Amino acid sequence: MVILTGKTLTLDEVKQVVFKKESVSLSTGAMTKVLENRYTVEAMLTEKKTMYGINTGFGKFSDVIIEDEDLDELQLNLIHSHACGVGEAFHENISRAMLLLRANALSQGHSGVRPVLIEQLINFINAGIHPVIPEQGSLGASGDLAPLSHLALALLGEGEVYYQGERIETRYVLQEEDLPPLTLKAKEGLALINGTQAMTAVGVITYLEVEKLLHQSEYVAAMTLEGLQGIIDAFDQDLHQVRGHQEQMDVAERIRHILSDSKLTTRQGEQRVQDAYSLRCIPQVLGACWQSALYAKEKLEIEMNAVTDNPLIFSEADKIISGGNFHGQPIAFAMDFIKLGIAETANISERRIERLVNPQLNDLPPFLSPNPGLESGAMIMQYSAASLVSENKTLAHPASVDSIPSSANQEDHVSMGTIAARHALQMLQNTRIVVAIELICAMQAVEYRGIERMASATGKLYEKARRIVPSITKDRVFSTDIEKLTDWLKNCEASDVRENILKGRGEAYERS
């Protein structure tokens, strides 16, 4: 059970709720805070104080005063009018993460909602009811208005949800679960949609996947080093310590331990003096990729426990303040930065694929073909990898440098943070395919060298991956192999790839 306080949610807890379907509840302390701030909202309504979005219109309509009898309708109209999302729906996991993050943000109490609203979010999580939320339509300031409006629709019994593997109208699911639809009161519609939970949810899911893929890419790169009889000296501890980047040192340490008992790596001068950069500079490049990921992690962990709607209620000071915590710039920058690391993980992986298949760059069979000429082997796998790498370079363009005014220029600077997060996730999916292709090629190369000479760690990876994709003994439809191995990399636990490594030397894993 994950207990929401509004301030203490961790990435591991998000992982447990989203992927392991852990249940959620609201802490007693948070409930007290929520009630206190709701009383403040209702008291100020009684006093006829003017409060943005509570008894006024929204955006450019903020100067329009709303009559008391229309306050509830105002909130419902807000949800209906703002549910303008377009495009494909977010994956169900992202929808679940959005429910969790919104419930956590509201749990701090500063949004002024009733406890019943947070309870509805939690009921959806615990019952596995996940709103169908279109991916496109958010500018990333004034919050993720369109996506969160679709989330809110489901709480009201409208729209569609994913439930028990089906996409179905929400009203039928609420009947099945005996859950009454929520009726919005003053402030509550605005509190639901004024926030950064779409971009943050996509960002968190992306980070968790990037973390796993970076570890996997290190293992695959280590196997490629064996397939190409790479020079292990380039990973020497002294070499990396004098530069001083911790993530670079960590990657080098992990590669050294992964390959500690390999008989396929070489020493400086045995076959060549230096390897190409895509082999020699693995710690420098992947270390920098880790830096971009860890920066994003830091900002996401803050945003997961942030109050990001407007206006905010501070009952202890008896005040309601209009501000701009909904602006997604911190997450927009973070997701644009992590995109660089994702792009370069794929980029350097594709360059290693080229070195594995190009007969001018190695002494392996051309394109790893079992019958060169008659059979093309891995030739076109490299094409596919190159295509994905090029696509990533386009997607890596920073979304956060763009801004388009909205709401009659009242909202004249926006973050495009949700676009940045969506592109990061798309790039992650492309990069996983590239790493899968490298693994297919690396396995073929080490077979040529002699799998009995592999390191214990890469040998275990080889055994597990070979259960998914058999050896290339003749040409076949390799698209199927790539898809199967990509799915395996996505779904396997990180421990499946890094099992039994760094026994008693876990510092580098703890740091990353």
Automatic annotation (TrEMBL):
Contains an active site 4-methylidene-imidazol-5-one (MIO), which is formed autocatalytically by cyclization and dehydration of residues Ala-Ser-Gly. Keywords: Cytoplasm, Histidine metabolism, Lyase. It is an enzyme of class 4 (lyase). GO terms for molecular function: histidine ammonia-lyase activity. It is found in: Cytoplasm. There is a cross-link at A141-G143 (5-imidazolinone (Ala-Gly)). One of its GO terms (cellular component) is cytoplasm. SUPFAM superfamilies: L-aspartase-like. Transmembrane segments: none annotated. Its EC number is 4.3.1.3. PROSITE patterns: PAL_HISTIDASE. Pathway: Amino-acid degradation; L-histidine degradation into L-glutamate; N-formimidoyl-L-glutamate from L-histidine: step 1/3. One of its GO terms (biological process) is L-histidine catabolic process to glutamate and formamide. It catalyses: L-histidine = trans-urocanate + NH4(+). InterPro entries: Aromatic_Lyase (IPR001106), Fumarase/histidase_N (IPR024083), HutH (IPR005921), L-Aspartase-like (IPR008948), Phe/His_NH3-lyase_AS (IPR022313). It comes from the Bacteria. The modification 2,3-didehydroalanine (Ser) is found at S142. Belongs to the PAL/histidase family. This is Histidine ammonia-lyase.
